[in-house]
Amino acid sequence: MYEMTQFQLFFIENDAMLRLxxxxxxLFIFMGLQLLRPKRLPEQGSWVRQVNNILLLLVNIIVVxxxxxxAIFDVAxxxxxxxxxxxxxxxxxxxxxxxxxxxxxxxxxxxQHVITHKVNFLWRIHRVHHIDREVDVTTGIRFHPFEIVLSxxxxxxxxxxxxxxxxAVILYEILLNAAALFTHSNILxxxxxxxxxxxxIVTPDMHRIHHSVLKDETDSNYGNxxxxxxxLFKTYRLLPKAGYDDMVIGLDEFRAPASGQLLQLLKTPFxxxx
Length: 274
Description:
The chain contains 13 helices and no strands. By secondary structure, the chain is an all-alpha fold. The protein has one domain (7-268). The model has no long low-confidence stretch (mean pLDDT 91).
């Protein structure tokens, strides 16, 4: 067990504040960049879709507070104090523990993402994220409450198996939220910069392909932070067939504007279709 440093203690004691402040700050930064340098011009009335996405986020916050009494880092603290999990059996430096946690958790979230596309009842929940007819920063917060709750319990199970320090879990959550906002942002990046960044992390252009209406493109580029998993497991796609300007985003059976309204989003898992 590692001795708690002041830096780690600060992270743990201010967990909620750090996650919220970083999330809100990045949300506004990427929204501003979208307006200044958009990759694709937004549809008319796009602001209505964005408002519904934000309302869904607020619903998710309330649902998680009501249904999940423990935070993920609470489970990490308990696991660490009771030597539960693989990393708690390894005598390694704290820095290596943190790095391994970030890498392993990103792999596990990649696996989770793939599973949500392959298991029918999970896909029916996850497709709330995919029926968005545009991809912008608010798409990165558009998830059904069922998926958020299931994801929390999945991460708790991962914490018990992996045994990371609580500080590393909080850090990964902050990075994951930042990546979700960045990869869904409608920002125009220089092609050379995009190519360079893709060697390490997922970029908006890389992830946008994942939101294509074509199923073989939807079933690609699952990565969240690191781009290596798609390349390693052969799910990487370099470019969309129709090109970035002409690719159609969303799902064919959910093209009506009403599909993006809050109540309709909440009912989506119970609607038949792909």
